[in-house]
Design a protein that fits this description.
This protein is α+β, with helices and mostly antiparallel strands. The protein has 15 helices and 16 strands. The chain has a 9-stranded mixed beta sheet with strand order 2-6-7-10-1-11-12-13-14. It binds adenosine-5'-diphosphate (ADP), magnesium ion (MG) and zinc ion (ZN).
Length: 475
């Protein structure tokens, strides 16, 4: 029997508003516990929440960017449960009338475009944080996070593989970051994901019983947790048992999911309309204004990069995964760089150097124009591609211009034929055995000779001239 997985993700995104969703408290991360609280967000009786308009705008923006229908009439609801990080005893969320519905995003997996439906996007408030470490027999509660605006983005069960799930997450993150509505920081928890997964025999229409896996905080873990869970469910079925509907916790240290609570212990949230907040009515005019203000989004930018700059789809996709990366690329091209060459240097050397220091493109000191200037030195033959790597690394480290580095380090390419001939002759006369073998047909040795000549000229000999001259002399 062959099985396929059915996956739907619930993604929570913390919105980048300055203040909380129903009060004026700051949302800044990393402050002393309980310094960003007020009677509203710590749930004192008798206070009234007031909706932060920016949070509403951010949710609408996200809905528009993910092809959702925006509700001109929607409402908040109380989701009731008891937990120490939730002093009110209920979370203000949305239930039957969310702000956005019926959207989708597209992802590319194995060169195929897949459309993943978005069921709904709703707004809600975050809860506080319980801290169990360093408190002896006690636990601490930090309510700085209570009341930070969240969006919950619920997908249709359209995802079929762990890889698609990770791609979907990446695309969502890119969109949220392009819009500036969420920083997408998964380590700090500003983007979190619960994954619902079931399996069914290939060809079967009905869905199987799903498990919900919580506590996933990186793209890698989305894939790993789902891979584990799919295997586990297949094993359960093949052993003649039944998958039970339950909530499971991903343990990244052990690399497994563990049962947290079953359906019987599932919460009954007793949702009902929030009586302290009036229903939200949004004018179409405002929706149109927000729509007009949307930036060019990753998919559109990627298509444009492919057509305008003639880039392969892979390059275009990679370069547009982050807005700032795309901007770096375009700045280098605008300064006169040949697009494909610029793309190669960004995706290759620049990314490598940034990764080595765990830096993002925003933290890159090197200016796009500096890459372009270096490419010009390659084009006019001043430096070879090999030397360019050295120059680029030095340029990245020191932020000096390529020309300065080339002068200071004496890296100008040797194109003077007589100088190269001297090196070629020297290598040939020092390696008579290899010359004999080459002439007897061992053509692989050409690389050996080129290597020796490059060594002798400290990598500065023009490789084309070296190649031609060697072939002539050894013929
Ligand atoms: P809940 O709030 O109880 O988690 P929802 O109806 O909001 O329930 O569904 C949550 C997620 O589960 C959605 O992303 C949906 O696509 C997904 N889902 C629903 N049924 C299945 C299933 N049989 N297998 C996998 N995912 C599913
Ligand atoms: Mg759920
Ligand atoms: Zn507050």
């Amino acid at each position: 029997m062959r099985y396929e997985a059915v996956i739907g993700l619930e993604v929570h995104a913390q919105m980048l508003t300055d203040s909380k969703i129903f009060c004026g408290c700051s949302t800044r991360f990393g402050s002393e516990p309980n310094t960003q609280t007020c009677p509203v967000c710590i749930g004192m009786p008798g206070v009234l929440p007031v909706l932060n308009k920016k949070a509403l705008e951010f949710a609408i923006k996200t809905g528009l960017a993910t092809n959702c229908r925006i509700s001109t009439y929607s409402r908040f609801a109380r989701k009731n449960y008891f937990y120490p990080d939730l002093p009110k005893g209920y979370q203000i969320s949305q239930f039957e009338l969310p702000i956005c519905e019926h959207g989708y995003v597209e992802i590319i997996v194995d060169a195929e475009i897949r459309r993943i439906g978005i069921t709904r996007i709703h707004m809600e408030e975050d809860a506080g944080k319980n801290i169990h470490e360093g408190a002896g027999n006690y636990s601490f509660v930090d309510l700085n996070r209570a009341g930070i605006p969240l969006m919950e983005i619920v997908s249709e069960p359209d995802i079929r593989t762990p890889k698609e799930a990770a791609e979907y997450m990446k695309k969502l993150r890119a969109i949220l970051r392009y819009l500036g509505v969420c920083d997408g920081n998964m380590e700090q928890g500003s983007l979190r994901c619960d994954a619902n997964v079931s399996i069914r025999p290939v060809g079967q229409k009905e869905y199987g019983t799903r498990a919900e896996v919580k506590n996933i905080n990186s793209f890698k873990f989305v894939e790993k947790a789902l891979e584990y869970e799919i295997k586990r469910q297949i094993k359960v079925i093949e052993e003649g048992r039944k998958v039970i509907q339950e909530t499971r916790l991903w343990d990244s240290n052990k690399g497994i999911t563990e049962s947290m609570r079953g359906k019987e212990e599932a919460h009954d949230y007793r949702y009902f309309p929030e009586p302290d907040l009036v229903p939200i009515t949004v004018e179409q005019k405002w929706i149109n204004e927000i729509k007009a203000s949307l930036p060019e989004l990753p998919d559109a930018k990627s298509k444009r990069f492919a057509s305008e700059y003639g880039l392969p789809e892979y390059d275009a996709d990679l370069l547009t995964s982050e807005k700032s990366l795309a901007e770096w690329f375009e700045a280098a091209v605008k300064a006169g760089g040949q697009p494909k060459a610029v793309a190669n240097w960004i995706m290759g050397e620049l990314t490598k150097l940034l990764n080595e220091e765990n830096k993002s493109i925003e933290e890159c000191q090197l200016k796009p124009k500096q890459l372009t200037e270096m490419l010009k030195l390659m084009d006019n033959g001043t430096i070879s591609g090999k030397i360019a790597k050295t120059v680029f690394e030095e340029m990245y480290k020191t932020c000096k211009d390529a020309e300065t580095i080339v002068k200071e380090k004496g890296l100008v390419q040797i194109s003077d034929e007589s100088a190269i001939e001297k090196a070629v002759d020297e290598v040939i006369s020092k390696n008579p055995k290899e010359v004999e073998r080459f002439k007897a047909g061992d053509e692989k040795l050409l690389g050996f000779f080129v290597g020796q000549i490059m060594k002798l000229t400290k990598g500065k000999a023009n490789p084309q001239i070296v190649d031609e001259m060697l072939k002539k002399k050894l013929a």
